[in-house]
Specification:
With 336 residues, the chain is an all-alpha fold. Helix content is 75%, strand content 0%. The chain has 15 helices and no strands. The chain starts with a helix and ends with a helix.
Length: 336
């Protein structure tokens, strides 16, 4: 089982690397509306995944794993997560790929993320009231399953809509790079494989590994939250181990492994001061994971995996993630 999880993590990392979706310049470029590759890949993955996954589930090969719409956590967590994504320039999964490629700011972000996961565990009893109300688990299936014809018609329509959005954005962006197509389709197929009952019977995810590992390291395991995240956290930690290996091995094979702290987009907007990058990477990592835990997921486990299930909570989360990302990008990144 461990080998298979590592293998899936390796594939995940390889797919991200194929289109450089893990790179700081790519994700921060999305925050400044200069690079739409991340948005296109996510939209395509959701579009292709909506169709494939719902057919797969309809045939009895997989099950739904939708997240509840805990409104305060999804909205506030989405905004905080988006801000962290803009400042750090990584998601919980892409950070580990970039760490494997030699990015020191990803290592600092990892430290900040672990701290964010630990602090979230400690303060959760005090902030639990902010996360609600729990409006329940809703998806297209739960709302229309009584009429299969309507359900599958909408599945294909929503799938086609997301795919069309991806290619429309590509058209207006006027770039020739099409590696995001392979990455988007690859993410959808990989997620569908992991969803299979004979696969892992769960979606891809990354952010739960951070509080799991942090609490494990400091011995803070005798609490309700750690008991809740123990199983998914262990799975995601192994999965991210495979993701790290992909970043390391593939970058060495491609001969583009490089130890670096300052990336070109950061230098362009924020300068070359190492101390500044270290501070903001740690801060970004902290709020990235804190926000993800508030919302109950991240880009891979909520936006993509939940989007493929047309889960209401994941759609709401995605809206507020991109709001936080773009607002922070506009305010934080200013040409010196």
């Amino acid at each position: 089982m461990t080998i298979m999880i590592l293998f899936y993590g390796f594939l995940f990392g390889a797919i991200l690397q194929s289109a450089k979706l893990n790179r700081f310049d790519t994700i921060s470029g999305m925050a400044t509306l200069e690079n739409y590759k991340v948005a296109k890949a996510i939209a395509l993955a959701i579009g292709v995944g909506v169709i494939l996954l719902n057919i797969e589930i309809g045939l009895g090969f997989a099950s739904y794993h939708t997240k509840p719409l805990i409104l305060g956590g999804v909205v506030l967590g989405g905004l905080i997560f988006g801000a962290g994504m803009a400042i750090l320039g990584y998601c919980p999964g892409t950070m580990i790929v970039s760490l494997g490629e030699g990015s020191l700011d990803a290592a600092v972000g990892l430290f900040g993320g672990l701290l964010g996961g630990l602090v979230y565990t400690i303060v959760l009893p005090a902030i639990g009231g902010l996360l609600g109300p729990d409006l329940g688990t809703y998806s297209l299936y739960s709302l229309t399953s009584s009429t299969p014809i309507v359900f599958y018609t909408l599945v294909f329509l929503f799938g086609a809509l997301f795919i069309a959005i991806a290619f429309f954005v590509h058209k207006i962006e006027k770039v020739t790079d099409r590696t995001w197509i392979f990455a988007g389709v690859g993410l959808a197929i990989l997620n569908c494989i992991i969803f299979l009952k004979i696969g892992m019977d769960r979606p891809i995810g990354a952010s739960t590994a951070y509080p799991y590992l942090a609490n494990l390291v400091v011995g803070n395991t005798d609490n309700e939250y750690f008991a809740k995240i123990g199983k998914p956290g262990s799975w995601e930690l192994i999965f991210l181990g495979g993701t790290f290996l992909a970043g390391l091995v593939i970058s060495l094979l491609r001969k583009d492994f490089k130890i670096r702290l300052i990336h070109s987009n950061w230098k362009r907007y924020k300068g070359s001061n190492a101390g500044g990058r270290i501070f903001w990477a740690a801060f970004g990592g902290f709020i990235l994971i804190f926000g993800a835990r508030m919302a109950g997921g991240c880009t891979s486990g909520h936006v993509i995996s939940g989007g493929m299930q047309l889960a209401v909570s994941s759609m709401v989360f995605a809206i507020f993630v991109f709001a936080g990302l773009l607002i922070t990008g506009r305010l934080f990144y200013k040409i010196r």
